């Protein structure tokens, strides 16, 4: 049970998103220190993987040093080769775009839907109209490169709409790597994926336990899959591809990507508290929505009705013509009041390393980027702080 009284309310500063450390973290980490099992060997790494499997319903989980490492290995497992292409959303943190280039492949950028996720309809339209299927693979008509994978990202914890996209990707031999780094705790409640956790729909899924996520290990990530061969290969690649640990024989290029026992111990403790965290996040979302949606020109964005979403972030949409402040003005105003906010990520098709990459009918993502500000959303956030944020927003 989380004791909100342990958090000292300080109206001098309300942070965007900070971790809650109020469970067995100290106990489990102390055990690692006392027993000197502090690196990637130790009981907590395997235990964390087991507990994540139990929570998400995935058959296998492989703990990594961070979510980016999990995405990188997943692309390699999916067979992404140099000069291939990977379909990605433009509206996302840059990590899933960068890992495409780690593989010497190229991103192809898609638009966002109203929940900030990859636009399913436009993506299907791109696959049907702008690609050709030959010799068992899908090729881009414009570049003649093979499209080997797609990375749908469950933005802000909102489950992507994948009902129609999954079948066409399977037909076209396009591997699906779900970026569920923001959506731990999000489950589908309607349709063919009802009851399934995000990250368990595609060929592989990736989680993150960064400091601002709903649970944290400080850093940390996880690969989810139902494919035993993928799981074995993931563990092999993340531990430097050791073919003979005694004689240091390595037959493939490996990576030092495994999670440490100390971090995994923290993850086990955090995961024990996740069901209550999810309840708090939902209740706080509803508190915000009740207070903010009555302010002219402001609106807390709804979540998809086909899933029970984890409410990781609370995106605030601003109609500057009604509210009389745009995103930048409101961010500065809140900062003056010691309330931390942040933009939606700068769109990736506009980033300097990727401005020459292909993009397809990107329109809605631009509008969302221009009008959205994320407001404080920590699990520790209490009702008085939420009221303070809403009072300041009402000052206009």
Q: In short, what is this structure?
A:
With 396 residues, the protein is α/β, with parallel strands linked by helices.
Describe the structure.
With 396 residues, the protein is an alpha/beta fold. It contains twelve helices and 16 strands. The strands form three sheets. Strands 1, 2, 3, 4, 5, 6, 7, 9, 10 and 15 form a ten-stranded mixed β-sheet that branches. Strand 5 and strand 6 form a beta hairpin. The protein is globular.
Task: Please give a handful of descriptors for the protein shown.
Aspartate Aminotransferase, domain 2, alpha/beta, 396 residues, single chain, Aspartate Aminotransferase, domain 1, disordered N terminus, globular, 4-stranded antiparallel sheet, 16% strand, 35% helix, 10-stranded mixed sheet
Task: Calculate Rg over CA atoms.
Answer: 21 Å
Sheet with the most strands? 10 strands, mixed
Order of helices and strands, N to C? HHEHEHEHEEEHEEEEHHEEEHHEEHEH
Domain count, please report it.
2
CATH topology of the largest domain: Aspartate Aminotransferase, domain 2
CATH-derived architecture of the largest domain: 3-Layer(aba) Sandwich
Helix content: 25-40%
Q: How far do the termini sit from each other?
A: 37 Å
Given helix and strand content, the structural type is alpha/beta
Question: Which range does the strand content fall in?
Answer: 15-25%
Coarse morphology: globular
CATH classification, class level of the largest domain: Alpha Beta
Number of helices in the DSSP assignment: 12
The poorly predicted ranges are: 1-9
Mean pLDDT, all residues: 96
Give me the CATH superfamily of the largest domain.
Answer: Type I PLP-dependent aspartate aminotransferase-like (Major domain)
| Number of E-type strands | 16
